[in-house]
Amino acid sequence: MKAVLISLTAAVISVLFAVGLVALAVRLSQKAVSKKKRAFFTLLTWLVFFVSGGVAYFGAYYHCGDAALQALQSGSGVSVGQIDGGILFDGAGEKSVLIFYPGAKVDEKAYAPLCRQLAMEGLDCILVRMPLRMAFLDKAAADRYIGNYGYEEYYVGGHSLGGAMAASYASENAGKLTGLVLLAAYPTAPLAKLSFCSVTGSEDRVMRWENYESGRAFWPAGAAELTIAGGNHAQFGDYGIQKGDGAAAIPAAEQWRQTVAFIMEKTADR
User: Is pLDDT above 90 for 268?
Assistant: First the structure.
């Protein structure tokens, strides 16, 4: 909440500054000033409007909840620590890791409950921190980790836009990966020779289901799919209610439990 208020305050100040520039530009236009000077103030005004709009848009994002904050604490067989550009959930497993891309405008820490449970079951997780909380700004983030942390198998995955970007990365780097895990997301390019599992919620009203269906054409052979009855879009993380989403008929904890069980079953089947 504090971050949102700060961002909105900055946006208001920027808009007021821009209005002042507009007023100044109008006054200058009424005087005998050069066209070059008037053009400079006009350009500066538009620049301020653009920056203030960006501050307001990227500054307003979904914050993580209490369950996520609790999941960030080490204990119960999982060590949680900061690494280069992300958070590592290190459990008992030593062979495999899932590099997870968060959804758009969502605090990456919101996915801590899911990542922690996966690590407890034997699949370590690296939760990536994306620039401006937009995965398309660092689609190749997985390159920072693959081959550098001692694992034999590297999975990449993500939620919503993060899942789409993970799928795009996987389509271009299949040789580096063992598999792909998508939560409420779909690929837009062919995926070959990869373990693949997709998890969705039946009450998801955010994802474009027509695109999800058309994305099946890119699934690799042997793809696995789970639709969680009563699950929705937002409950793959812990960040509250997402605008436009359907109401979940099950608790978030149950959606996490089913998601983790399915992922672990399918990654064990490889």
Answer: no
